[in-house]
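Hi R.,

Here are the chain sequences for the assembly we discussed:
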Amino acid sequence: MSAVIDTHGHGHGHEHDHHGGYGGIMRWITTTNHKDIGTMYLWFSFIMFMVGGTMAMAIRLELFSPGLQFFNPDLFNQFTTMHGLIMVFGAIMPAFVGFANWQIPMMIGAPDMAFARLNNWSFWLLPFAGSLLILSFFMPGGAPGVGWTMYAPLTVQMGVGMDFTIFAVHLLGMSSILGSINIITTILNMRAPGMTLMRMPLFVWTWLITAYLLVAAMPVLAGAVTMTLTDRHFGTSFFNAAGGGDPVLYQHIFWFFGHPEVYIIALPAFGVVSQVIPAFSRKPLFGYASMVYATSAIAILSFIVWAHHMYTVGMPVTGQLFFMYATTLIAVPTGVKVFNWVATMWKGSLTFETPMLFACGFLFLFTMGGFTGLVLSLVPIDIQLQDTYYVVAHFHYVMVAGALFSAFAGVYFWLPKWTGKMYDETLGKWHFWLSMIFFNMIFFVQHFLGLAGMPRRVPDYPVMFETWNRISSIGAFGFGLTQLLFLYIVLKCIRHGEKAPQKPWEGADSLEWTHLPTPAPYHSFETPPVLK
Amino acid sequence: MASELSADARERDNRRLLTRLSIVAAGMFGFGYAMVPFYQAFCKAIGAYSLVERDAAPANTQVDATRLVTVELDANVRGLPWRFKPVAGYVQVHPGQLVQIEYEVSNEREAAVTGQAIASFGPEVAGRYFRKLECFCFTQQTLRPGETRRMPVTFVVDPDLPQGVGTVTLSYTFFEVPGAAGRT
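And here is the predicted structure of the full complex:
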């Protein structure tokens, strides 16, 4: 037993035996083990994914036919708002923090995260934040129906549910910031001897950069919602025109956070894909160094493009041009990444197990989402397409086919290492193909709806949009049901999976595969590994 | 080699990084607030933040007598016990001509109330060519209980107003200023 573990167990000497001093639920509440906490993050995000998904089903149910059938417009707006907030902050972000917790210490040869107890607290803020979000539905006036962007001045007029949401965002932000500080410290200070920065797996690199983005961007969002809160209750007028404020200012502050947030979600997804594609191509990642630099370039650029979300607020043409050019510039480092992934596959000995299928799905669909993003970055086109279903289609290609598919790829990739058992490959392939088909059924047709002028966030539409909406809704129900299959596959793997070898993927080469048995022991790398 | 550090040294390094990153996070929270005055100064510098300020008179003061623009006047109140309306529903003006119109407002509450009027324009593009030289919207208005007041607006429509715009709607909305002296 090395001295290192004593330090990072923070004096909890009794945790050296298998699962700490507690059993049952107390084990999970008091745990400081990065693997336990990673597991909790992943389950939490899956539950939130189901909750947010249920709201998506409700939205698509209402949009199945023109006219109002199931929900009044107020409730519909609440569903769109909460679907966005829960999916972004409750499902996708915690999912990748879960990956970070499980994988980063194992990939850099560290015994645990740098601040183990802080890690526990970062996680346990989340269930309370999630509860606040969901409880806002039961407040007088219901949940906020302002859209996930929470634009002023509507937010100033909402009921108590808005205050619940504001506090939830505070908690979520606090959790992300603490988690990020922990991740940065772990990566910078806890690497095994010989694990230099430029030898780190790309997943670790993308998380290092993401964590910096989080530390810089989340506090700005906290500031924006705090201003909303004081405008609502304490007589300030940040966004109140009558008091000398400006609602457009809110949009600037929000999107100063909001655009880096897009990359906070996308970069870890890039990281997962950068682990999966080389493993199944049986080749090292093509252009490793350029991947690191491209990731950094994306992160830096993400802070100077925010106003492309608000071309129509009446900004000067010079401003529009600046943000348009800066935005199109992001296509360059992103293109570097896409070409590097393709070049990694080039002449590789490819096999297509489920993780690789999801990674390829990601590559194809994310690139499409990137291209529609490029279309939207152009001012004259964006003014036409602003707030239409084209935008909805664009960001779901990036968020669902980008982030969610890569999260699926990561789960299938690392599930054998986490559980010690193999998932059912046939069912995994079914999960992928059903997800792929239904995803495109939902969102590809939404491009057409947007180009034809259907506005987003409206529960009704003219009859001419009916056909595409029906297809989209059927796709949505199929996609939702398919995710139950995913739950079944994971549970089946945990309960009845076949025993997995130490390295089930021939081409995988990071430390968790080469230096650790399967399943990964509860305490790994108590003695740092020796790297060549 | 990081792991050859003693446990204490590692702990000290970690805590130092924790402190630094916390300071960055706190600084970025402050940065969000710093965007408020910066935004206002920036908009003022580029002339985009003139809702409650006097506009510069147009450089071109030539009255364009060949053109007649209809200015429709509109009035709204939000959350105020005030009656607020233009004295005349519309005026016809030549671009470049100095025009004065009046609005009438009366307080129907048994208490003094303070309000702030915010102007908006339709079509939006017209706002840039609509120069208000004197306006009740430049200051907060406090009305005593039952008081009725006529308030002038002096403006010039810039002769550079695009040819396609024949009608401009000038709309004011009065908002109550919360926490102002007039509130009881």
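The two ends of chain B are 69 Å apart (CA to CA). Residues 69-176 of chain B form a domain with the Ctag/Cox11 (Pfam 04442) fold (CATH 2.60.370.10).

Let me know if anything looks off.

Best,
T.
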